[in-house]
Design a protein that fits this description.
The chain has 487 residues and is an alpha/beta fold. Helices cover 45% and strands 20% of the residues. It is built from 16 helices and 21 strands. Strand 9 and strand 10 form a beta hairpin. InterPro entries: Glyco_hydro/deAcase_b/a-brl (IPR011330), NODB_dom (IPR002509), Polysacc_deacetylase_ArnD (IPR050248).
């Protein structure tokens, strides 16, 4: 009987053991994909995660501008409230600008005060939605959600998405390296302070205690001073004129915080909050914050993007103009080359027609220039050159022209009698040839240019000259008559 009873018991035991093994295997297998997923992703993100887990702060690459004058940045947290209008009245009277780190729930409850802050020219910062530490610092996702919720409220009321953020209670013992890194990935700038007015140490801090705290605080070139304009901070309102007067007498100016102002930030200390983050969670938060940054660029990023766009546009326009200019110059060069290759057709009325090859003449200053000897000999005249005196004598019919290259002068003779003299005459020496203008030379020899065609595809000159046989048959005609006939 005993053996018959034990057999079923042994079977059940084996079955139970088998089920336990199956359960353990399934649990192990079920964990494997999650572990693999944690190991997936961007290597840079994994590296950042490891460094942040070790407590190392990874600061974003951002440049700031130091104010030229000693500057105080008055900041007010926890509002807006019914006290905010009193603060704004004082700031308006003192002609001072400040920065208000507002709570989303307070902005929702006091929209008119928020609007006045903006309309009066002050800056807005985000102070989360409800200021509840346990919610904000239990995990980053909750902190992020509150910042986003508060931002939506502010945006709906005044159309602004604050880039500046102040952590309730400050970052010391609240922020870890992950908080800083993820907020900076989203483009936010975290501001603590370097002067605490002490107006929130407890309820109803006396005015004189706040004043003594401020007065005892160390001076710096840039001072970010913490005040509160939330309910219960009447003392902060009362002491404010005295604080402003104090810093003015010390030579400080007042300004709002901007993205160009280097933030005052506390050093990272061990958080008093217990929280854990896996690589998978971190990767999701990095994606979330970076997507936000891409969707909400800062004013500086927008300005930089616009400057880059304008620079690219101007560069493209300049490149297009340069290209067009280059093409115009190339076309002009082609036209010049083409024109330079055109022969000059010369028609002598009552005489012969001949062509002057492009290698012999050129266009210069709207006139045709060519060698004196070539022109005179083509017309049937002669040219004699005296190298020792750098002079040339051109003879055509009853006309003689003496060219003096040294003095740049021309003497004109008719029937051996000098009839004209020209100083600073158009002539120059090129390749051992005297180059002269066609029209002036023809006129000086008693002729005239009756027509000239200078087209891109054709060049022609027609001239009227006294033929040489006319001079031989009428060598006693007076010079003045000859000039009259040739003009």
């Amino acid at each position: 009987m005993r053996s018959q009873v034990q057999a079923p018991n042994n079977g059940r035991l084996r079955f139970q053991i088998m089920m336990v093994v199956v359960l353990l295997v399934s649990l192990l297998v079920g964990r494997m994909p999650a572990q693999a997923a944690d190991n997936e992703g961007d290597p840079a993100v994994q590296e950042a995660f490891q460094q942040l887990q070790a407590g190392k702060r990874l600061k974003s690459e951002r440049t700031y501008v130091t104010s030229e004058q000693p500057t105080v940045y008055l900041t007010f947290d926890d509002g807006p409230s019914k006290l905010t209008n009193q603060v704004l009245d004082i700031l308006d009277r003192e002609e001072v600008k400040a920065t208000f780190f507002v709570l989303g729930e307070q902005a929702k409850a006091h929209p008119n005060e928020l609007k006045r802050i903006v309309n009066d020219g002050h800056a807005i910062g985000n102070h989360t939605y409800n200021h509840v530490y346990k919610e904000l610092y239990s995990d980053f996702q909750t902190f992020w959600n509150q910042v986003q919720r508060s931002e939506e409220v502010i945006s709906n009321i005044v159309g602004i998405r604050p880039q500046l953020v102040r952590a309730p209670g400050g970052t010391a013992t609240n922020f870890d390296a992950n908080y800083y890194y993820l907020m900076e990935q989203a483009g936010y700038i975290i501001h603590d302070w370097n002067v605490d007015s002490g107006d929130s140490k407890r309820a109803n801090v006396p005015v004189n205690e706040i004043w003594q705290t401020v007065k005892a605080s160390p001076l710096d070139h840039e001072i970010n001073i913490l005040f509160h304009d939330g309910t219960g901070h009447e003392s902060s309102v009362q002491v404010l004129p005295q604080v402003i007067s104090y810093y003015k007498k010390l030579g400080y100016t007042f300004a709002t915080l901007t993205e160009q102002v280097k933030p005052k930030q506390f050093a990272i200390t061990k958080p008093k909050w217990s929280r854990n983050m896996s690589l998978k969670q971190f990767q999701a938060l990095v994606d979330q914050t970076q997507q936000y940054a891409a969707a909400h660029p800062s004013p500086t990023e927008l300005a930089t993007k616009e400057e880059k766009r304008l620079a690219q546009q101007l560069g493209a326009e300049a490149e297009e103009k340069a290209k067009a200019k280059k093409e115009e110059e190339a076309e002009a060069a082609r036209m010049l080359a083409k024109q330079a290759a055109l022969p000059l057709q010369v028609h002598v009325l009552g005489g012969n027609t001949f062509a002057i090859e492009p290698s012999i003449y050129k266009l210069h200053a709207n006139q045709i220039e060519l060698p004196l000897r070539y022109l005179i000999e083509k017309m049937g005249g002669k040219v004699a050159w005296q190298a020792d005196t750098m002079t040339a004598s051109a003879h055509y019919g009853i006309y003689d022209m003496d060219y003096d290259l040294v003095n740049r002068s021309i003497n004109l003779f008719t029937l051996g009698k000098q009839t004209a003299s020209y100083s600073l005459a158009d002539m120059n020496m090129q390749d051992n040839q005297i180059i002269v203008p066609l029209r002036k030379t023809i006129v000086s020899l008693g002729g005239r240019i009756t027509n000239a065609v200078i087209d891109p595809d054709y060049r022609e000159v027609s001239m009227a000259l006294r033929p040489l046989h006319f001079f031989k048959e009428n060598n006693t005609i007076l010079t003045n008559s000859l000039f009259a006939m040739g003009s």
